[in-house]
C-alpha cells in the first residue's frame, strides 16, 4: 500500500493512522536513488524526492506494509508505478510553503534545512524566495502532474480531505486498497509536524 504525498500534507499522520487502523506496519523509505529529473529544489529538503527503481517496486509488492514517500511524477516514476495501487495526497503549493514557514518559525524544522530562507519574516518573502529557488515550481509541477495522471490505480485526495473529513477519507483509502471499512470513531494521529 503506497501513499505518495506532496510535502507538508499531513501524510505522516495519514500513514500512522491508516497503519494503526489496519494493524499493518508503516515505513517511509529514505533513498539514495537518483535525484528526480526535472525538479530543482525539493530534493534538497526531502531525501525521498527521487527517481525510484524496480527494486523498490518489488519491495512494495512483497511486503504488506504502508509505504509513504514524496515521489514526484517523473516519466520513470509514472512508468514504474503504473500498475501499483496508490493514494496521491496533494496540497496547494502556497499552503505547503506557509507550512514550512510555520515549522521554521516554531523551530520544528532544522534551521539548516531552510538556510535559504534565513532572515525572512513575511509570508510574501517566503513565497518569493520559494519561487526564486524553484521550490514553488517543483510543488506546482508535482501537484499538476499527479492530478492529470489518469490511472485507475490512483486515488487522489487532498490535505483538506484528510484534516477536515478524516473518517470518510480513511474509508475511501481503505476501499481503494481493498480493505474493510473502519468504524466511525477514528481520529487523525497528530505528528510532530501537525498544525495546532
In short:
With 196 residues, the chain is of the alpha/beta class.
Question: What form results from the Cα inertia axes?
Answer: globular
Could you tell me the CATH topology label. Rossmann fold
CATH architecture: 3-Layer(aba) Sandwich
Q: Give me the Rg, rounded.
A: 16 Å
Give the tally of structural domains. 1
Weakly predicted, low-confidence segments: none
Structural commentary:
The protein is of the alpha/beta class and 196 residues long. A 5-stranded parallel β-sheet has the order 2-3-1-4-5, with helices on both faces. It has helices at residues 11-22, 54-62, 75-81, 93-105, 123-133, 135-148, 159-164, 166-176; strands at 2-5, 25-27, 65-69, 86-90, 154-158. The chain has a single domain, classed as P-loop containing nucleotide triphosphate hydrolases (Rossmann fold), CATH 3.40.50. It has 8 helices and 5 strands; from the N terminus they run βαβαβαβαααβαα. The model has no long low-confidence stretch (mean pLDDT 88). The radius of gyration is 16 Å and the shape is globular.
Features:
globular, Rossmann fold, 42% helix, 196 residues, alpha/beta, 8 helices
Please outline the helices and strands.
Blueprint (H helix, E strand, L loop, with lengths): L1 E4 L5 H12 L2 E3 L26 H9 L2 E5 L5 H7 L4 E5 L2 H13 L17 H11 L1 H14 L5 E5 H6 L1 H11 L20
Parallel strand pairs: 1-3, 1-4, 2-3, 4-5
Amino acid at each position: 500500500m503506497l501513499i505518495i504525498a506532496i510535502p507538508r500534507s499531513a501524510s505522516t499522520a495519514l500513514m500512522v493512522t491508516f497503519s494503526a487502523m489496519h494493524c499493518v506496519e508503516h515505513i517511509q523509505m529514505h533513498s539514495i536513488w537518483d535525484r528526480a529529473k526535472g525538479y530543482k529544489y525539493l530534493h534538497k529538503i526531502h531525501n525521498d524526492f527521487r527517481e525510484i527503481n524496480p527494486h523498490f517496486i518489488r519491495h512494495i509488492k512483497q511486503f504488506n506494509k504502508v509505504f509513504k514517500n514524496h515521489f514526484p511524477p517523473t516519466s520513470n516514476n509514472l512508468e514504474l508505478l503504473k500498475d501499483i495501487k496508490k493514494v496521491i495526497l496533494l496540497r496547494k503549493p502556497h499552503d505547503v510553503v506557509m507550512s514550512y514557514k510555520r515549522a521554521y518559525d516554531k523551530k520544528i524544522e532544522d534551521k539548516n534545512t531552510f538556510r535559504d530562507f534565513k532572515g525572512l519574516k513575511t509570508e510574501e518573502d517566503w513565497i518569493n524566495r520559494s519561487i526564486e529557488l524553484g521550490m514553488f515550481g517543483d510543488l506546482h509541477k508535482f501537484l499538476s502532474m499527479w492530478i492529470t495522471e489518469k490511472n485507475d490505480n490512483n486515488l487522489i485526495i487532498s490535505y483538506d480531505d484528510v484534516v477536515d473529513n478524516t473518517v470518510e477519507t480513511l474509508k475511501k483509502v481503505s476501499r481503494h486498497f481493498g480493505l474493510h471499512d473502519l468504524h466511525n470513531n477514528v481520529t487523525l494521529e497528530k505528528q510532530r509536524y501537525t498544525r495546532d
